[in-house]
Amino acid sequence: MGHTWLGLMARTPRNTLSADLIVRTALELMEAKGTDAFSLRGVAGELGVGPMALYTYFRNKDDLYDAVRDHLMGLLPAVPSDAPWPDQVRAVCRSLRLLMLQHPCLAQLLAGRPLSGHETARVAEGLLGVLRAAGFDAETAARTHTTLFTYVLGSTSWEIQMAAERRDPEAWRRLRTSMESLSARDFPSVVELAPELARTTGGDEQFDYGLDLLLAGLQLRTPS
Amino acid sequence: MGHTWLGLMARTPRNTLSADLIVRTALELMEAKGTDAFSLRGVAGELGVGPMALYTYFRNKDDLYDAVRDHLMGLLPAVPSDAPWPDQVRAVCRSLRLLMLQHPCLAQLLAGRPLSGHETARVAEGLLGVLRAAGFDAETAARTHTTLFTYVLGSTSWEIQMAAERRDPEAWRRLRTSMESLSARDFPSVVELAPELARTTGGDEQFDYGLDLLLAGLQLRTPS
DNA sequence: ACCTGAACACCGTTCAAGT
DNA sequence: ACCTGAACACCGTTCAAGT
What we know:
The structure is a homodimer of 224-residue chains.
Chain A: H1 19-33, H2 40-47, H3 61-73, H4 85-102, H5 105-112, H6 118-133, H7 138-167, H8 169-180, H9 188-192, H10 194-199, H11 204-219
The first copy, chain A, binds a DNA duplex (19 and 19 nucleotides) through residues 1, 14-15, 17, 39-41, 49-53, 55-57, 60-61.
């Protein structure tokens, strides 16, 4: 299996496999075929090895998921150092959102697994450092970090989900008809605001709107 | 298959199946074994029918997911009518969070599928109605609705995820050691705030903290 | 250590058929 | 309409074995 004429191997020769190569191949497949269609067997097939070859480098599928997530988190830019703290916070949140939009699988990788790994800690470090330098106490800094992180995660996951749905014509048609079937008597606000709701399911403006609400609330508690 | 002595059927006799019975059985299984372990074959087995029997009532697995989600959303209480609008908004967000905590599968059902169905529209209607009655314009009401919804979804999903991880001793141990292995030189804030971060990964206080930030920011934009 | 190959216990879904 | 049974094309993971 895997031999062609002249004895060329269709599979990768021995000792060319590595954790990094597997992670990059897994990421490619997730972005090409979607996170749900991703499988260990698919990665192994792409690399020309048996499924069990991957278990030399990763304990199981979740372990590979964590490695891909950490690989992506490593791509996050550093926090800008020369700016007022609200702008620094904005920059961190925006760059995390942008990374999620560029790599939609990251949303599922962050939501479905607990945080661990150095790259992920680096992100927390950046945000916590900004908040501490701004003068917030330990408890407020921690609470604010968790709030901002979950807001970015929730809003961007939703945005990605909706964008994927819009690309599937069948699902999009069913969503439209289900919206249009709502009676204006029972759902007056939903029917009236349907165009606005459709417009606000994603985009930079919508993300910044919620982020600005959080920052405005936070600035009311500014210590200095 | 399914016959016992005396001819008693181990499977449900004909015409006792219904969409509602399937939804309730699916929900039970999701909550007993976890959402990930859920399968159509499992539901069919629990009901004593073949896997294909379910396809009479649901087009596919996603269709059943949507039905379970709508069933759960139907359990949400109505918006309190005699209260200032910030309290009404708080009530809607808190009751959605409570429902998600009581039925952890709801988090995945909301995050993984697009919104559709009357029960889900009912929730949007309640929140939008409150915001419109408070005097916000169409665009602001829609943006605020999406912001609040994604905040509740993100923060509560995260809370549920972390609580599940804490229950798994193996995963919990690995998360502790990965936290403790971080050097105080490279991650000063994370190491210093480790106890606060652990405390703020969930709970009513953490949820209300973020919700109050949003509401404080929103009240700065109050029209009247 | 690194990788194979067969096997186990599963999946969702299609298709043809029975009542 | 309602449900069965066999089959298809998959999964993740274990286990024993080879180099």
